[in-house]
């Protein structure tokens, strides 16, 4: 029976980070993958979505400059865009697997099932290890309603060869908003249903409302305090019956109401690994309730956002923990999050809503639309909220709504993690005029 120092179940970014770091330190490592090598992000997640969003960004910039240098705005050709997307996603599984093999990491294809605390079975072959890492990720959740078999998911959206004329998205989270924005920008009639009036829970509420208002102006129909009750097929279309007794007739219905961890059928129950529908229970060293088994990434129940960079951070942490270079609990830095929409909405650290009743912090609200950085591109909706600590002047949080929100939030993330004061930032010389050179006036 083949024995390893560490076996990692799942080949997404978190599992890969751990595998490469452990192998580099001389460990015998194996990675087990039951689906696509590379995991969700590069195959059917953030990377292909960003390729599609790139076309939306380009179109948005031209639209802002219509009659200011450009006489028209071209339409997005969905078929060509999807062909371009395929140039990124198609090579991923082969390249990811090849990279592991070239680094001396054994690749095992198939579904892993635990036989005991140190043994797994993959297609009836047994493998043992001193430690295991669960890095199995998540998959789209499907609402349990009559007609649920007609739901499509984000995976289906990112593989569509043709763009439907009318689409309904069920859910008010970031996946639903991002895909709805892409579909709308590419020419579909888009309806978004959400069971309450608060989409993008966790993001600054006033700026979220500004974003929703802008998306409504672009043509997205929002149906708040509405749920899909049933879905029925009507020839080549679908009828979605709503809680309000109304209905929608659309060509495709996408369920984007959350994601659930891939933990069933691993045999975790019989060896004592505790988990819920929200993920595996781990301690502050990412160790499960079984001493030989750890977990990282989206399959973990945690308060930190389930994002690719977080998974990679956790993978690197576990590699250091296993090799003895660190012994302490995992210590997360400030973690930025973003909605890639039109415009982008990004935040990091403490938010305005968390600080309203706290006298230790100061909240600065800014309309940046008249600043040269944005005005020269005729960008009309650009706002920021900056949260700083009164006693020290240190930045502790920020939310930005605008086309350059990702760039600005990354700079704010650096400032928070490095504890850079305003004086320290102002002592630096940045390229100008740029988002970075604006920092002197923002904070």
TrEMBL record:
Sequence positions that bind FAD: 50, 298
Q: Which Pfam families match?
A: Pyr_redox_2 (PF07992), Pyr_redox_dim (PF02852)
Question: Its domain of life?
Answer: Bacteria
The cofactor remark states: Binds 1 FAD per subunit.
Q: Which InterPro entries match?
A: FAD/NAD-bd_sf (IPR036188), FAD/NAD-binding_dom (IPR023753), FAD/NAD-linked_Rdtase_dimer_sf (IPR016156), Pyr_nuc-diS_OxRdtase (IPR001100), Pyr_nucl-diS_OxRdtase_dimer (IPR004099)
Q: List the disulfide bonds.
A: 41-46
Q: Which SUPFAM superfamilies match?
A: FAD/NAD(P)-binding domain, FAD/NAD-linked reductases, dimerisation (C-terminal) domain
Enumerate the cofactors the protein uses.
FAD
Gene Ontology MF terms: nucleotide binding; oxidoreductase activity
Cite the binding residues for NAD(+): 171-178, 258
Keyword annotations of the record: FAD, Flavoprotein, NAD, Nucleotide-binding
Q: Which residues form the FAD/NAD(P)-binding domain?
A: 4-315
Q: Which residues are in the Pyridine nucleotide-disulphide oxidoreductase dimerisation domain?
A: 335-437
Family the entry assigns: Belongs to the class-I pyridine nucleotide-disulfide oxidoreductase family.
Q: What is this protein called?
A: Glutathione reductase
């Amino acid at each position: 029976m083949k024995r390893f120092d560490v076996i990692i179940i799942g080949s997404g970014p978190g599992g890969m980070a751990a595998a490469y770091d452990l192998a580099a330190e001389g460990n015998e490592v194996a990675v087990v993958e039951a689906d696509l090598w590379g995991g969700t992000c590069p195959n059917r997640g953030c990377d292909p979505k960003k390729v599609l969003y790139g076309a939306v960004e380009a179109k948005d910039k031209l639209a802002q400059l219509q009659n200011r240098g450009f006489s028209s705005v071209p339409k997005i050709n969905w078929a060509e865009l999807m062909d371009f997307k395929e140039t990124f996603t198609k090579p991923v599984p082969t390249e990811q697997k090849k990279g592991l093999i070239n680094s001396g990491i054994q690749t095992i294809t198939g579904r892993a099932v635990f036989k005991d605390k140190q043994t797994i079975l993959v297609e009836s072959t047994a493998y043992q290890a001193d430690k295991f890492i669960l890095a199995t990720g998540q998959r789209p959740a499907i609402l349990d309603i009559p007609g649920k078999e007609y739901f499509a998911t984000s995976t289906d959206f990112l593989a569509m060869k043709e763009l439907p004329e009318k689409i309904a998205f069920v859910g008010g989270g970031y996946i639903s908003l991002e895909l709805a924005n892409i579909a709308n920008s590419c020419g579909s009639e888009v309806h978004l249903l959400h069971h309450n009036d608060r989409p993008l829970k966790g993001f600054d509420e006033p700026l979220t409302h500004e974003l929703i208002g802008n998306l409504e102006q672009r043509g997205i129909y929002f149906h708040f305090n509405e749920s899909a009750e049933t879905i029925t097929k009507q020839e080549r279309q679908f009828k979605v019956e709503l809680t309000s007794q109304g209905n929608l007739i659309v060509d495709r219905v996408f369920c984007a109401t959350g994601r659930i961890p891939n933990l069933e059928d691993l045999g975790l129950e019989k060896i004592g690994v505790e988990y819920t529908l929200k993920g595996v229970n781990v301690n502050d060293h990412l160790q499960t309730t079984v001493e030989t088994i750890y977990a990282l990434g989206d399959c973990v129940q945690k308060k930190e956002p389930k994002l690719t960079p977080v998974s990679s951070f956790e993978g690197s942490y576990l590699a250091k923990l296993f090799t003895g270079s660190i012994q302490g609990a995992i210590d997360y830095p400030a973690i930025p999050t973003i909605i890639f929409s039109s415009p982008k909405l990004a935040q990091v650290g403490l938010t305005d809503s968390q600080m309203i009743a706290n006298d230790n912090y100061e909240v600065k609200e800014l309309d940046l639309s008249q600043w040269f950085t944005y005005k020269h591109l005729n960008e009309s909706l650009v706002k920021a909220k900056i949260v700083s600590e009164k006693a020290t002047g240190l930045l502790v949080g920020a939310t930005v709504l605008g086309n350059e929100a990702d760039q600005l939030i990354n700079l704010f993330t650096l400032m928070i993690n490095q504890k850079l004061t305003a004086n320290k930032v102002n002592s630096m010389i940045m390229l100008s005029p740029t988002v970075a050179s604006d920092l002197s006036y923002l904070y």
